Amino acid sequence: MAIDLCNKSPVSADGEVRTWPQETALLEDLGTEQRDALNFAYRTTLSNVDPRLVAGDPAAWASDFGYALNRVAIRLDNRTNDELRHDALHHADPAMREQAMYEYADRDQADAFELLEQVVRHDTNREVRWDALWAIEKLGGAQAISTLQKFLRDADPEIAEWSKLFISELQSGDPSFDGRDALYTPGRTFDETIYLLIHCDLYVRLDESNTHWGKISLAPQGLARIYGQAHACPNVQTRERQLVIAKTISGLHADGSPHCDNYLFRGFTDRTRRDRGNFFFESLVPRTFFKSGRADDPSEGVRKANIGFARYGTWHLEPKFQIREEAAIRYVRGRFQGWGYVNLARIAGRSIEQVLTPGNGVLSTLHDPEVGPMTNAFILGTFKGKLNDWDGDGRIDMNSRDVYSTVDGEIDSDQDGVADEPGLTCCDHTTLMP
Fold first, then answer.
1. What DSSP state is assigned to residue 218?
2. pLDDT tens for residues 1-42?
């Protein structure tokens, strides 16, 4: 992902040779565990940097499909840089302001840090503000740290904590948090409902020759608008082997109800360190595939298929937040990848506002004989989720978010822990049709 490659090599996007910035934290000043974590983080990112700067087996450093596509894909957002700067600061829709600033940062412009700082200072939407902080971290380098430090005492505790967290990640690889207490709500289906920030690059194959690719860099709110806002929903007893990702899309149903789309993930978790878990999970769920390319739109036909997705990363525990004598997950971060279908006829000639609409893109699979040939998008990105204080009472809310899922990922519209219809994990479009 281009935004994550910025400032990681001495060569800029326009070919200019950069000099490495002054180190902000000396390796010898780090503790043993921090040093091990930083070395591990370096090794796991070798496949994402310019292979000319890495030594070793090219099977490790030159085999990243997303990196290969990023070098050749054309941008499907054809706004000028001036238009992006204007939209990032002035567009009436917060999701569009955020999309503009992420696109601008992804282009690695010289004044990207300046623009992102303006957004954090002046935007009225707190999600735009903390997503801008994440974009600053993604750009990386010494300038990212100095910019983030300006918001450590922000009036919004979440902005201040995100700044602290991102700085600590850049300096040592580990997150750091403030000292607020937490509130656990008994009687809920899940022990935690962690609001996820998700950024991805959507690479679209533009023709059958495999020689033309397009790219859309989806900011968190834009991605949530199309594919749904996701929550990671773990329970202490089962979190090391399974997890529900509950998604809701707003604005898709005519009656105003949320479109529910839940995914049960299973996998392995490494617990060799008591303060965290490293995981690799996969999901395989039955879905109605809409050939129109828009969720809940059967106008061009439908097909039942099994959709797969993979997510992997690390969750960090907070010992002071206890759930049934176990430390709660305070923060999770990682990567994901999967497949999708974008109806090119639906987006051709459209503005970005017309493209980023609810459900205007569907997940797909390569393994179905009918759906597979239609699959034309490779989706990969990163996610982060932190427990937040949602009601402003000064306490971190552990499981207060509304998610419409049972522990097995079935739709549970009244959140009583019992499935509306056994086995149904996504809203049935046939019940919503006139």
1. E
2. 578 877 665 555 555 555 444 444 555 666 676 666 666 555
Q: Which backbone phi and psi does 96 adopt, to 5 degrees?
A: -75, -35
Question: Residue type at 411?
Answer: I
Task: Tell me, letter by letter, the H, E, C secondary structure of 80-142.
Answer: CHHHHHHHHHHCCCHHHHHHHHHHHHHCCCCCHHHHHHHHHHHCCCHHHHHHHHHHHHHHCCH
Phi, psi of 274 (to 5 degrees): -70, -20
- Which tens digit of pLDDT belongs to each residue from 115-139? 999 999 999 999 999 999 999 999 9
How many other C-beta atoms can be found within 10 angstroms of the C-beta atom of residue 299?
Answer: 9
- Cα 193 to Cα 132: distance, rounded to the nearest angstrom: 23
Tokens of 240: 């090391």
H-run or E-run covering 334: strand 326-341
How many helices and strands in the chain, by DSSP H and E? Answer: 13, 13
d(CA 378, CA 338): 6
CB atoms within 10 A of CB 420: 16
Specify the 3-state DSSP secondary structure of 374: helix
For the segment 391-425, what is each residue's pLDDT rounded down to a tens digit? 999 999 999 999 999 999 999 999 999 999 999 99
